[in-house]
Amino acid sequence: MLNEVEALKVFERPGPVNTQEVISILKELKQPLEFLVVASVTGDSAVKAAQQIKNHKIICVTCPQGMFWEVNAMNADLFDKIPELKARREEWQKRKLDRVPLSITQENKVKLKELGVEVVRGTIPLFGPTFSMRLHLRKTTSLDIVAKTLELISPGTLVCLEAVLMATDSGIIPEDELVFACAGTEMGLDTAWIVKSCASANMFHPTKGFRFVELLAKPGLALNPSININYLR
Known about the structure:
The protein contains 8 helices and 9 strands. By secondary structure, the chain is an alpha/beta fold.
C-alpha cells in the first residue's frame, strides 16, 4: 500500500452524501504527491477540497461547453435513484428550469481563483465524440466499452481517469506522475484513487500509459447511467 491511513473505504451507497468523507480521507494522506485532481462540474467539490486541503496543488477539471442537464428527462436513472440528485432535480423543477448548463458557477469561479485552483475545461476523452456518435449516429465504439467497464467499479473511477488525462493534456500535470484523483456519481465525490498520469494520446502505451495504482474510496455498489444518458445533451 502507498497510503499510510486506513485501507480502502467502501461507502454504503453512491452519491454526493460522501463528498466530505472523501475530502477527509484525502486530507489525511501523507504521501508527498504534488497534485490532487478534483472532477467538479459546478466547482462545488473543488472549492470544498481547496478550502480544506492545503498540502497539495488542487486542479479542478470540469465539463466542456455545450453540455446541459435536461431537467425534464431526469425522472429516471441516477436522478431518481440517488436522494441528493433527486432533490436537485426537484429544486430545478420548482424553479421551472428546463436546461441547466454543466459548468462552473460564477460564484465558484471567483472562489477557485482566490484559492489558487487552476481550472481545466476541454474535451472529455472517453465521452465527447463518442457521445455524439451514440446520440447522432446511433453507433457505439470500443471507447464506450472501456468507459462502461470502468463504471463497473464506479462512475467516479471512469471520471478520475478522464480528469487526469485532461489535466495532463493541458500541461498542468506532467506525464508519468503519481497523483491523487477524486470524482463522483454525477455530482459530488464518492471515489478516490492514486493514479499515474499520462497524455490521452499515450493512454494505452505499454510503459508510459495511464495506470490505476491504488483505490482509496468507492461506493460499494455502483449505480451507472444508461449508455445514452438521456438527461445529458
